[in-house]
From TrEMBL, chain B:
The lineage of its organism: Bacteria, Pseudomonadati, Pseudomonadota, Alphaproteobacteria, Sphingomonadales. Belongs to the sigma-70 factor family. ECF subfamily. One of its GO terms (molecular function) is DNA binding. It comes from the Bacteria. Residues 102-154 form the RNA polymerase sigma factor 70 region 4 type domain. This is RNA polymerase sigma factor, sigma-70 family protein. GO terms for biological process: DNA-templated transcription initiation. SUPFAM superfamilies: Sigma2 domain of RNA polymerase sigma factors, Sigma3 and sigma4 domains of RNA polymerase sigma factors.
Length: 258, 176
């Protein structure tokens, strides 16, 4: 006598997972039990239907964001950036600690430099980037008045980059307060209403600085300084990957005009 | 990393299909697969060398999918069962089998998540019973009983027809 046929055997039969001898037993059993045979034949048809219905998904070409080689490359880059970031953080800590110690009698130094600028841009974006009612004080239609206002307060010439090629429309701007004096804030939005902003102010330190990414909560930005003016282009986290080329473009335009 | 590429890359179509079958939305399914691949790349060296790579990758994807579905259920995001069968599983509408496929997918969508995963892993992705048990983190016996219940329930739902299976679908379907 062979072992009694179990439901597990019958499912394994449907899935083609039975070994030769057991398969023969199951086939013989199904021949003797047409009702059971009909039920499992139906399961077999269901299985085939699902495979046929879902098969086309696996036949689709793999989209670029799932290209494994790209993902590996992106990871290498980000781990390198992370490592550099860690080194920079250690250095800053060291510098900050030493600086703080040497300045202990003078009191607290106001934060200056490109990192301060980055933080100011993030704060300004966090406030005005979300503002539904009045994101800008002077809108794009009055950009001459806006530029005059900002130039008067910064005592510098400024220009408004045209980012429409990147899909961002100029909305307008305002002067904002920072711990390092007045700054100009230019606001842009895309077709979906997602906003980015450029904050600019004269730099006391870090008069020239290469572009660097910064993050503060949900705000991502790219900050740089050219000839004594500091800039940071900031936006929401969701647009993070798009911001770098936009910042490059803004810098290119401002360099060519000043 | 070379061996990782050689082993994981051929799995991607399967991973996309499994994720989309569970989430019923192409964009979030591909996001999920991307998440999964990033983890696979990051943890490749932590993988048990004697273990089966495909099972390991599917385990990562399955756990991510479960988390995503729980989050979605908690947030109460509307998942329109009827629309997704057309948009997420688009197959050429010229085929005669079309209605048949549609009915099976609608019924599949109405199954509880644990039964759906078993049916997909075994019936569509061709994992063995033992591999499915490893992916789902349950004993083999549980896999077999879920498979049995899933097949019976699916047959019942298909027989009842799409109208009924759509109205008796579980938690994910919400009417606002």
């Amino acid at each position: 006598m062979s072992r009694p046929i179990s439901e597990d055997d019958l499912h394994a039969y449907v899935d083609g997972a039975l070994s030769g001898a057991r398969r023969v037993d199951v086939e013989a059993y199904l021949e003797r039990n047409p009702e059971v045979a009909e039920q499992y034949a139906r399961f077999g048809r269901q299985r085939e239907t699902l495979r046929a219905a879902l098969g086309p998904i696996a036949a689709e070409p793999v989209p670029p964001q799932l290209n494994l080689a790209h993902l590996v490359a992106a990871r290498r880059q980000s781990s390198w950036t992370g490592w550099r970031g860690a080194v920079a953080a250690c250095l800053l800590l060291l510098v900050g600690g030493a600086g703080g110690w040497s300045l202990r009698s003078i009191g607290t130094e106001p934060s200056v430099g490109i990192n301060a600028l980055a933080q100011e841009a993030s704060y300004a974006y966090a406030v005005f980037g979300q503002d539904k009612g009045r994101p800008v004080e002077i809108n794009a239609a009055d950009s001459t008045a806006l530029v005059r206002w900002v130039e008067n307060r910064l005592s510098r010439q400024i220009s408004v980059p045209d980012l429409s090629q990147a899909g961002y429309r100029f909305m307008g701007g305002r002067v904002v307060a920072t711990p390092n004096g007045a700054a100009g804030l230019l606001m842009y939005d895309d077709a979906q209403g997602a906003r980015i902003a450029i904050l600019m102010r004269p730099m006391m330190r870090d008069q020239n600085a290469p572009m660097a990414e910064h993050r503060e909560g949900d705000v991502v930005g790219y900050a740089w300084a050219d000839n004594g003016m500091g800039y940071s282009l900031v936006g929401g986290n969701s647009a993070a990957s798009l911001l770098h080329p936009v910042a490059d473009e803004a810098r290119r335009q401002m360099r060519s005009r000043t | 990393m070379q061996d990782m590429m050689a082993i994981v890359e051929p799995l991607i179509p399967s991973l996309r299909r499994y994720a989309r079958s569970l989430l019923r939305d192409q964009v979030s399914a591909d996001d999920l697969v991307q998440d999964c691949l990033e983890r696979v790349i990051g943890r490749w060296h932590q993988r048990r060398a004697d273990g089966d790579a495909r099972t390991w990758v599917f385990t990562i994807l399955h756990n991510l999918a479960i988390n995503r579905m729980r989050q979605t259920a908690r947030r109460g995001v509307h998942v329109p069962v009827d629309d997704t069968s057309e948009t997420a599983f688009a197959t050429p509408p010229t085929q005669e089998d079309q209605l048949h496929h549609q009915a099976a997918l609608t019924a599949l969508a109405a199954l509880p998540e644990d039964q759906r995963s078993v049916l997909l892993l075994i019936g569509v992705e061709d994992l063995s019973y033992a591999e499915a048990a490893a992916v789902l983190g349950v004993p083999l016996g549980t896999v077999m009983s879920r498979l049995s219940r899933a097949r019976q329930r699916l047959a019942q739902l298909i027989e009842e027809g799409p109208a009924r299976s759509a109205t008796t679908g579980p938690g994910l379907r919400r009417v606002k």
